[in-house]
Amino acid sequence: MNKVYIVDGARTPFLKARSEPGPFSASDLAVACARPLLARQPFPASQLDEVIVGCVIPAADEANVARLIALRLGCGKRMPAHSVQRNCASGLQAVATAAERITLGRAHLVLAGGAEAMSRAPIQWNAAMTGWLGRMLRARQPLDRLNALARFRFSYLKPVYSLLLGLTDPLVKLSMGQTAEILAHRFGISREAQDVYALQSHRRLAAAFDAGDMRAEVETLYDINERFYAEDTGLRRDTDLDQLGQLKPVFDRKYGLVTSGNSSQVTDGAAMLLLASESAVKQHGLSVLGEWVDHEWAGVDPGQMGLGPVHAVAQLLARQKMKMRDLQQMELNEAFAAQVLACQAAWDSQQYAREELGMDAPPGAVDPALLNPEGGAISNGHPVGASGARIVLHLLHALKRKGGGQGIATLCIGGGQGGAMLLRVEGAR
Q1: Per-residue pLDDT for 427 more than 90?
Q2: What is the model's pTM?
Q3: Dist. CA 349–CA 362, nearest whole Å
């Protein structure tokens, strides 16, 4: 099997969704970070073999957004491109697919990542309104049109928010936040513990930006109104436990523990990476950021989808004959503070290992100092199509700052899945 290297990468600042559509489409965001990434390379964009992009809610005029991105980047009309969708791990799936293509020798240079403009998720008509419009269009005679018009009801105007539908599992009828509530109750995770974790995420991300640790991965964004964005706009530098404690539960207003403050944010953003085979690295004299080693997917109960990383990571470590202590860092996407803490509890549970993982002994929890040491989605946001690519990019840069090592990037996935990717940076201890 051919080795796979991650040569370089870049992401946009993640922009928290406000009360109106954001200034950038998904393809705008991907192009904004991929263009400087490709400009740094010693070969033209046309020499890529393929472009693969994860996106969960593509706009109607951005169907197969990967192809649009490839053309906007000047890759040329002959270059293939395809989009992938695995909910929250779509960006990770794009990188995994690119790695598989290279290991098989089917490609040597692939641009892969994810992009999402959640603030632009469409608002739709409901089924009753759609049916009424259809009847109106079919009516040809004046009397038929009057009859159709008479059947109109103001309730037909009630909008359908596609974002809310997308964040709700259609089988178990639970929102992602409600699944986090289930985990909080199952593992006895208090509201205070969740708020403490959320505060830590903001403080860690702020410290990383202040130390200049994010410069290597974040490209400044400029919009048409001459505004620029150099930092994740969901970062709350001034928050504290008192402010977090005053927020009311969102998903279970009477008994709940999960709030907007200890959850990830609805966000726009993109992250793109350049993957290369060993022969391409030698041919073009490329410097290497890190190496892809392996990845794994797992399925879990959709009602407890946040536990997906527990299974994916355990399976990945077992196949690689590794222990949790062999990792120098883990990036676990912070969908919810309750979900991150639940994964830690499950990894450390003898009962969970025996009954759910089919293992004699638990993998063990991750050292908290090595888990998301520069913050995560609670502070920088979770543009669902892009987050998987972001944590891969960030993990590689973090390991490089540490002088090398190996780490895992992992996410829970709406619908009841988990994904995990093992990465290595040269100079491992």
Answers
A1: no
A2: 0.95
A3: 6
